[in-house]
Design goal:
This is Outer-membrane lipoprotein carrier protein. InterPro entries: LolA/LolB/LppX, OM_lipoprot_carrier_LolA-like. Keywords: Signal. By secondary structure, this protein is mainly β. It has one domain: Lipoprotein localisation LolA/LolB/LppX (outer membrane lipoprotein receptor (LolB), chain A). The protein has an 11-stranded antiparallel beta sheet with strand order 6-5-4-3-2-1-11-10-9-8-7, with helices on one face. The longest helix has 16 residues. The two termini are 25 Å apart.
Length: 197
């Protein structure tokens, strides 16, 4: 399971910068996503995560622009806090604490504020379905190292983040699905204090 989690953490991006190469309707969709993500004042959800070894984990997801926290309860207690260019994972089961830079990590693409998908980021794909929208992004200056996909429900013109998917340079896949998503919650800044911080 920890290998699956680290696969999520070590993703890297690819391709050239921006989304000006996309058709006008897809550019509009990307702009909607940017506007939505930058307007989130606080979000909480339950999550289920599947990694490259098909290991499944679950817990609580807390997000606000530039900050993310995952509290794992399955298969055992772990705490992940990301923001300010760094990620800290505290595995309460083993006592191990992992520190990572988000500089070359696509998870960092989710933690910029404001989120802009035209500055050093490449939008590689936009897909619209029945009541759904997703965008795939990567760092522009590190070709073929990985990909991050943000998934949204899109109902009556309203977006809601419902999942993340990715693949790393070794073709390890992960997915995180969100449930019971609540937006507009007040999140105390100390929630994003790294373990031991």
């Amino acid at each position: 399971m920890k290998r699956a989690l680290l696969a999520l953490l070590f993703l890297s991006g690819c391709a050239t910068s921006g989304y000006g190469h996309l058709p006008a309707d897809q550019q509009a969709d990307v702009h909607r996503i940017e506007t939505y993500m930058n307007g989130v004042t606080g979000m909480q959800a339950s999550f289920n995560q599947t990694g490259p070894d098909n290991g499944v984990s679950a817990g609580r997801f807390v997000y606000m622009p530039a900050h993310l926290r995952l509290d794992y309860v399955t298969p055992h207690t772990m705490e992940l806090v990301a923001g300010d260019g760094h990620l800290v994972l505290d595995d309460m089961d083993s006592g191990a604490v992992t520190h990572l830079s988000l500089k070359r990590n696509p998870l960092g693409l989710l933690l910029h504020y404001p989120i802009r998908f035209d500055r050093g980021i490449q939008v590689t794909d936009v897909r619209r379905g029945q009541g759904s929208l997703q965008v795939s992004v990567a760092e522009a200056d590190n070709p073929s190292q990985g990909l991050l996909t943000l998934q949204f429900s899109d109902t009556a013109g309203k977006l809601l983040l419902i999942g993340l998917q990715g693949v790393d340079a070794r073709q390890n896949h992960f997915s995180v699905s969100l449930g019971n998503v609540v937006e507009g919650v007040t999140v105390t800044p100390t929630v994003f204090t790294p373990p031991g911080g």
